[in-house]
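Worked example

This section walks through a single chain of length 197. The input is the sequence exactly as stored; nothing has been trimmed or padded.
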Amino acid sequence: MNKQQLLDQIRADIISDNVCPDLAKTAKNLVIGDGNPDANIVFIGEAPGKNEDEQGLPFVGASGKFLNEMLASVGLERKDIFITNIVKYRPPNNRDPLPQEKKDFLPYLQRQLEVIAPKVVITLGRHSTNCFLPDLQISKAHGEPKRIKLQFKENDDVLEVVILPLYHPAAALYNGGMRQTLLDDFSAIPAILKKIN
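Given that input, the structure is written out below as tokens.
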């Protein structure tokens, strides 16, 4: 199977494994992710919002527009990256994902990373950052790359990646001062990729 087929299989498994049935009942769509399965960069948000739930695609609302703008600022487009969330169904009323929901979806996120094998994982917001770096405070560590090893249970593989914690693009929509911080943090991405290559 090629990478896209493997990613499609993860989607099918989430449905057949009945992950987070309460969320599945209230959501319109399973939002598995979107982009290039061969990407060097994977972006991970927390959970789909209203627009994402309606369209079945991640980051298509106002946050997504700002994300596209930031990608363009470093010469990237959506087709160059892969983007997903920890939780794949929209939580009711856009509430934060619960710890158990994140835990239930984490194995599927890990499988996505295993298939794509990116060099850089960019976590958007504290929920996704804390999945990989549980003790990290985003306010203190945003924009600072960390090299970590991800261990996969299925086959004992280890994927060494650079995690770049960033504020969630939505933060800039509520707080104008965050906009420049995010753009500044984003501007480090090409140098990080170059260093890895």
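What to look for: The mean pLDDT is 93.
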